[in-house]
Specification:
single chain; mainly alpha; 8 helices
């Protein structure tokens, strides 16, 4: 973090973006916070989705939270089978509610705009 303050260049963010996000939020380093969010958005996976959602919520990272909720919505069945999901259900019920709301919104938009069927000849 100190290197970033002096040089405005971030070290290898892929290995420490989650830790630096917390520090950037604590010390109001918005540029570093944005860089960490961007890196974490690119690294969302089934295994990291819940951890990333919790980070985004704790550090008020709106861009990251939106991206991870979209990811969870797209991969709901896989993410919900992870041990971190089960932990989130117990420890962060408000995040479970947000994930459910995101999933419900996506489902409703699919119902409102069904795919057009091709005419058969």
């Amino acid at each position: 973090m100190m290197g970033f303050i002096y040089t405005r260049k971030a070290p290898d963010l892929h290995s420490m973006a989650d830790i630096l996000l917390a520090a950037a939020d604590k010390y109001s380093l918005e540029c570093l916070k944005f860089m960490c969010e961007d890196t974490l958005c690119k690294d969302i996976s089934i295994e990291t989705a819940v951890h990333t959602l919790v980070l985004a919520d704790l550090h008020i990272a709106g861009q990251l939270k939106t991206q991870v909720l979209d990811f969870i919505t797209a991969h709901a069945s896989e993410v919900s089978e992870t041990s971190s999901w089960k932990t989130m259900v117990d420890s962060y019920p408000h995040l479970l509610a947000e994930a459910y709301s995101s999933l419900a919104s996506a489902h409703c938009s699919l119902l409102e705009n069904p795919p057009k069927r091709l005419k058969q000849s």
